[in-house]
Every structure is written in C-alpha cells, then in structure tokens.
Amino acid sequence: MADEGLRERKKRETRLALSHATIQLALANGLEAVTVSEIAAAVDVSERTFRNYFGSKAEAVVAAHVERGWRIAEAVLARPAGEPLWDAVTHAVVAQFEPSGEPTGDGRPEGLQRLLAEPSVQHEVFRAHAQAQDRLTAAIAERTGTAAEDLYPRTVAAVVSAGLGVAMAQWTQDPARSLVSLLREVFDGIRAGLPDPR
Asked: Whereabouts does the entry annotate DNA binding, in residue ranges (predicted)?
C-alpha cells in the first residue's frame, strides 16, 4: 500500500516536471520549436516516458492546470467540516498559488498568455477546464451533501472557475499585482455576494 502511494507520487512528480519543462521551453523558444526530445532531456527521462504521460506538447502544457484543479478539489474536502463553503473554497484556491503567488510561467504572464492562446493548446485548455470543474463539482457535492448532478454544486464550481479566470486574466494584464491578492479580492467579493461597488 505504501509502495503504491510512493509510486503514484513519483508518477505525479514526473508528470508535473514534464509539464513545467514544456512550459519553460515553450516560453523561451515557442511551442512549435520545442521538441519532445528537448523536454525529456530537461527532466532526464526518455522520449518514451514523455509519450507515456502525454499525447502532445499541448497536453503537457496544461497538465499543471489539471493538477491544480484536482488539488483545489482535494483541498476543499480537506477543510474543516464546520467552515463555511466559500471560506473553504477561498482557502483551497489561494493555497494552490502560494508561496510563489503566480502560476507556472516564470513570472512572465504575457508569455504564458500567448502560449495558452495557441490553437493546439486551446483545445487542451478546454478539456482541462472541464476535468477540473467536474472534479470540483464532485468535491462540492460531497462537502454539501448534494448530488454532483444537482444545480448547486455545478453552479458553485462554475463560479469558482469564473473567479479563477477573472483573477488570471487581470494578472496577465497587470503582472505587478500579486496573483494571490487578486484571487483573495475576487473570492472575497464572491463570498460577499458581489455587492454593488458604489
């Protein structure tokens, strides 16, 4: 059992290392110019290992996003049972961006934005977003005692996704601001019911 946990952790670490290497190399050279061989070499694995984890470089780019979405869902479930839902969600989301305060991209939001806008990556972003939202919906349903098919957990998960998207978009336009502070501001507003700012 412990061996299985270690094996899964090693797989996850390799998957994330390949994703991070793909992002860094693509930011430096452009996604099309980067080869699978270069990505594998950066992580000290074989090309075959890369292909065991990913069907494409675009899939590798978004793997960190998928992982973050899964961790948010797990963190929502791990929060204290008596904690209000939106407090739990806010803590779960913000924790995924600390301590660095920014997503993978080496502090280059404009490069990350260009990378995510590439057509091959767009399809994978859409798939990753759907996977993350489904996982979060299930976690919210479990936490609130509802069914994942119910409107409530699906709506909460959609609002969380929208909030993340707004904070990320704002950060790419204003990288001087901390992504963590943007996330807190967005989720504090959601938690307060988005009152009229006037």
From this structure: 35-54
CB count within 10 Å of CB 13 equals: 11
User: Rounded distance, CA 50 to CA 52, Å?
Assistant: 5
Triad 135, 139, 142: Cα angle to 5°? 140
List Cβ<8 Å contacts ≥24 apart for 185-194.
187/86, 187/89, 187/90, 187/93, 187/94, 187/163, 188/90, 190/86, 190/159, 190/163, 191/86, 191/87, 191/90
In tens, the pLDDT along 111-132 reads 777 787 788 888 888 888 898 9
CA nearest 40: which of 22, 26, 23? Answer: 22
> With contact defined as beta carbons under 8 Å apart, do 65 and 133 qualify?
no
- Reported as a single tens digit per residue, the pLDDT across 27-78 is 999 899 999 999 999 999 999 999 999 999 999 999 988 888 899 999 999 9
How far apart are alpha carbons 142 and 130 in whole angstroms?
Answer: 18
Distance (Å) of CA 153 to CA 74, 135, 149, 173: 15, 11, 8, 30
Structural domains of the chain, ranges and CATH numbers in brackets: 1-55 (1.10.10.60), 58-197 (1.10.357.10)
